[in-house]
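Sequence, please.
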C-alpha cells in the first residue's frame, strides 16, 4: 500500500462524455483510478453538488453565455452550463468508478452564491470545507490527486493542499483537462510554483 491518501476529484457524469460539462476523455481515466485505488488504504472523493439556481450557471444571468466571465463578490467567475445539480444523474459518480474503501465524500459548490473548485476552500479562498482538518486529525500528510478537471478543480485542490502544508502530487495521466484558452498550461505552471509535484500512474502501480 502507498503511504498517503488518494484524493479523487469530481469523477461525475456531467464531467464525462455525454454530460452537461463534459471534459474530453473524462471517462477514460476511470479504470486507471480504480487501479490506483487498490494501492491506497485511504481514499477521499469530492463531488460537485450545486443547487439548481447556482450563480455560476450562465442560465442564471440574462444575456450571458457559458464560458463567459463575470465579476462576482469574490472575484472573476467563469459561467458554466448547468451541471452537477443536486440529486440529478449528472451529479452522480461515474457508474464504473469502483472505490468501495472511500471513507469521505466532500461536497462542494452547494451554496448558491459561491462557486467552489477546491476540495479545501470555496472560491472566496476563506470558507473552508473541513478537509484539511480531517486529514490532520487522521495524521495524513501526503496526498495524491487525480480526476476532473486538471486545470480547474484538480488544480485548485492541489494548490490549496500544498499551501496547507501537505506533500501534494498530481497523477497526470489519471486526470483530464478542459483547457480553456491555455488554462491547462497556466494551471500546471501555477501548481509547480506552489510546490506541487507531478507523477504518472506507472510510478505508483509499478
Amino acid at each position: 500500500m502507498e503511504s498517503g491518501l488518494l484524493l479523487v476529484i469530481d469523477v461525475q457524469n456531467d464531467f464525462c462524455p455525454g454530460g452537461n460539462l463534459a471534459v474530453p476523455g473524462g471517462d477514460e481515466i476511470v479504470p486507471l483510478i480504480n487501479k490506483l485505488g487498490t494501492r491506497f488504504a485511504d481514499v477521499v472523493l469530492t463531488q460537485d453538488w450545486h443547487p439548481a439556481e447556482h450563480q455560476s450557471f450562465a442560465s442564471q444571468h440574462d444575456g450571458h453565455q457559458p464560458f463567459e466571465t463575470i465579476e462576482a463578490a469574490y472575484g472573476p467567475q467563469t459561467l458554466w452550463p448547468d451541471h452537477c445539480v443536486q440529486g440529478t444523474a449528472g451529479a452522480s459518480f461515474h457508474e464504473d468508478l469502483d472505490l468501495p474503501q472511500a471513507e469521505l465524500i466532500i461536497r462542494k459548490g452547494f451554496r448558491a452564491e459561491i462557486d467552489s473548485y477546491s476540495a479545501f476552500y470555496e472560491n472566496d479562498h476563506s470558507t473552508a470545507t473541513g478537509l484539511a482538518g480531517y486529514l490532520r486529525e487522521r495524521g495524513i500528510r501526503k496526498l495524491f490527486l487525480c480526476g476532473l478537471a486538471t486545470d480547474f478543480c484538480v488544480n485548485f485542490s492541489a494548490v490549496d493542499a500544498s499551501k496547507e502544508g501537505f506533500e501534494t502530487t498530481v497523477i497526470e495521466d489519471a486526470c483530464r483537462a478542459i483547457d480553456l484558452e491555455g488554462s491547462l498550461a497556466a494551471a500546471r505552471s501555477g501548481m509547480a510554483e506552489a510546490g506541487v509535484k507531478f507523477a504518472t500512474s506507472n510510478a505508483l502501480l509499478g
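The two ends are 12 Å apart (CA to CA).
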